[in-house]
Amino acid sequence: MSAVTKLSRLVERASRLPPTPTVVSLEPVRSEKVLTSWPDEVRGVPNITLRSALFGSSRSASNAFLQRAEIYTQRPTQMRYTGPRLDQGDLDVWITLLHIARQKQMGKSFKTSAYELLKLQGKTDAGNNRKTLYKRLFRLAAGTLELSAKHQSYTGGLIDSIYRDDMEQKLVITLNLELSYLFGPNYFTHIDWGVRRSLNSKPLAQWLHGYLSSHAEPFPVSIDTLMKMAGSLDSSTSSREQNIRRALDSLQHASNLHGQPFSYEISGGNVYFTKTPTSSQAKHIARKNSGSKSKK
Fold this sequence. Notes:
With 296 residues, the chain is of the alpha+beta class. It has one domain. Helix content is 40%, strand content 21%. The protein contains ten helices and 14 strands. It has helices spanning 3-16, 47-50, 88-101, 114-120, 127-142, 193-198, 203-213, 223-229, 237-257, 279-295, and strands spanning 42-46, 55-56, 65-70, 78-84, 86-87, 110-112, 144-148, 153-156, 161-165, 170-174, 188-192, 221-222, 262-267, 270-275. The strands form five sheets. The protein has a four-stranded antiparallel β-sheet with strand order 3-4-7-8. Strand 9 and strand 10 form a beta hairpin.
């Protein structure tokens, strides 16, 4: 039998064999993710954190440690948290990290410094400020968040890791890759940093500012619900209303100073809000209205 005949028979036999199965990897492909950028005068914050008691308004509870505690939040979101109870000062630090990390690849470490973090918050690089900053960074790194929403879910930390290089005076921070999914369209809000800074030392007013900023058209909410979402520990009905009025008055004053007219009215235990939507929120309202009309 010639070599050519043998080769032709081998080819014919091989053609009759079943095809070799293709091996498909079941591991998810982790694509590079970057946060949607925003201007320097605002801060990008996930709506889920602005519509809940995760970053509360009560300083007196900041030393408490929570163990898979259910966090009061706007429905349909469900949230549990394990770690030091967080407040508005912790939120300032976290959103400053997000501000620096925007347009960087999520899941990979980036360098910053105590000086930069404090400067972006409008604070001096003094000993006490730096000490408080480190304390808040470690509190954020110690927590684990479990959340489930209509189109989102996340389990992980607010900060994955912190490396402190005292020789170079640098901080190396890593944020979880999956945090980027909380910055999808209509999932996050631009917080006016000037207004928020005007409300320093007024944590309830700061929380209300974030909550209202996350709504293009705020609906009426009861005082009781607002205070629960704000993480308030005040159990007195009369005191809660006084605190809400005081905080809203401060927010109204700060908003008007920054050319963002805002007003409110309390009636029957409910708070009614009137605000001018931002340009992006106005577009959202227009799309929503046009969609409602097309369904009719």
